[in-house]
Amino acid sequence: MNYKIAVIPGDGIGPEVTREAIKALDAVADKFGHKFEYEYLLAGGAAIDETGRCLPDETVEAAKKSDAVLLGAVGGPKWDNLPGEERPEKALLGLRKALGLFANLRPAIMFDELKGACPLKEEKVQGGLDIMVVRELTGGIYFGERGIKDTPDMGKAAYDVELYSEKEVERVAEIAFSMAMKRNKKVTSVDKANVLESSRLWRKTVAKVAEKYPEVTLENFYVDNAAMQLVYNPKQFDVIVTSNIFGDILSDEASMITGSIGMLPSASLAEGEFGMYEPVHGSAPDIAGTGKANPMAAVLSASMMLKYTFGLSEEADAIENAVKAVLEEGYRTPDIMTSGKRLITTSEAGTLIAERI
Ligand code: IPM
Ligand code: MN
User: Fold this and answer.
1) What is the 3-state secondary structure (H, E, C) of 314-326?
2) Span 203-240, pLDDT tens digits
3) Catalytically annotated residues
4) How, if at all, do strands 68-73 and 275-279 pair?
5) Is the CB of 252 inside a 6 Å radius of any atom of ligand 1?
6) For the residues of 129-147, what is the DSSP string, one character each?
7) Distance of alpha carbon 139 from its chain centroid, rounded?
8) Residue 267, ligand 1, Cβ within 6 A
9) How far is ligand 2, taken at its centre, from the CA of residue 281, in Å?
10) Whether residue 92 has its Cβ less than 6 Å from ligand 1
11) DSSP alpha helices (H): ranges in the chain?
C-alpha cells in the first residue's frame, strides 16, 4: 500500500528524533512492501523564521491532504518573547484544532528493561505498568474565550474560560470506553466536579456514555486525588479520560513514572482514521544538536501511526519489538542510562532500531 505522510520536524530536537522515526518507517516499508511518501512541512519556530508565521496555511492544507501527520516538537527560547498568538506552541494548538484532533492518546507503558529508571519504589510497579491517558485535545481552557481587562482597583485581570459541550465530552469518552474494551475494561474519568460546573457536566456526560459499555467499570476521581493516586498506586489505572488541561498535567506525571518522558509516544485522533503522531517530550533546546536526544518516543509514535491510522498492527509490533530488542541488548541514550549499559547517540539508536525491524 501507498501512504502519504506529512512530516513536521519542528524545532529543537524535533528534526533529530523525527529523522530516526523515518528510518524505522523506511525499514517497515522495505520489510513489508509498503510505500511511505513523505512531505516535509513547516510549523513552529522553524516556520516563524522561514515565513514569519508559526502555522502557514500551506502546512494546514497539506496536512489535511495527507493520510497522517508525523510531528517532532515545536518551541524554544529563541521565540519565547513573542506574544501568545505568535508563539511556536500556537502552531501545535492550531494544527490540533484545524485537523479536528479531539482525542489524544498517551500510553504510559513501563518497559521491563527500564524498571530501574522508575522513581517509585519497586513494589508500586511490580509486574509493569500500562496506563492509557485519553486527553481531550480541542476544547476546554486551551480554546475557550480569553482576554485581559482592567479592574477598578486590582490592576489588570486576565481570564481563560473552561467550557465543554456534551458532544465534546461524549466523543472523547467513546474513545476511552472503546479502548478500555480492548484492555482491562476500566475507565477512570478525572474532573474537578466538586468545584467546577464544566466538570459536573463532564461527569454526567461520561456516565451516560458508560451505560453503553456495561462491561467497563467507570470510576470518577477528582484531579487532585488522581494526581496523588498516580504515584501512590499507579497500577489501579487502566484508561484515564480527562479534559485538555488535566490531561496535559497528568500525562506528564504518568510518563515520569515509567522512567523517562523520552520513551513516550502519542496519537492525536480525529473522527475516522486520521491522526497526528508525536513524542510527548518537547523540543528540549538544551540538548538539541548534541546527539543526546532519545528518539524512541518518536519511533514509537510512528508505530502508533501504523496501528491507529493505517491499521497495520503487525508492522506496528515490529517497531515496538525492535525498540524492546535494542533496550534488551543494553543500549541506552543518556536519559535512560544506568551503569553497565552502552551509551549511544540519537542516530545510533535509530539505526539499531531500524536494523532490528
Ligand atoms: C503537550 C504540550 C503542549 C500542550 C504545549 C506545547 C502547547 O505541553 O502537548 O502536552 O500543552 O498541549
Ligand atoms: Mn504537555
Assistant:
1) HHHHHHHHHHHHH
2) 999 999 999 999 999 999 999 999 999 999 999 999 99
3) 142, 192, 224, 248, 252
4) parallel
5) no
6) -EEEEEEE-SSGGGTS-EE
7) 16
8) no
9) 8
10) yes
11) 14-32, 45-51, 57-65, 88-98, 166-181, 197-210, 223-232, 244-257, 296-308, 313-328, 346-355
By DSSP bridging, strand 130-136 and strand 103-109 are antiparallel
Q: Amino acid identity of 312?
A: L
One-letter amino acid at 68 equals A
228-280: pLDDT as tens digits: 999 999 999 999 999 999 999 999 999 989 888 889 999 999 999 999 999 99
For 4, the enclosing helix (H) or strand (E) is strand 2-10
CA-based angle 129:252:245, to the nearest 5?
125
pTM: 0.95
Quickly count: other Cβ atoms within 10 Å of residue 88's Cβ.
27
Q: What's the DSSP call for residue 107?
A: E
Place of cell 512530516: 7
Cell of 350: 535509530
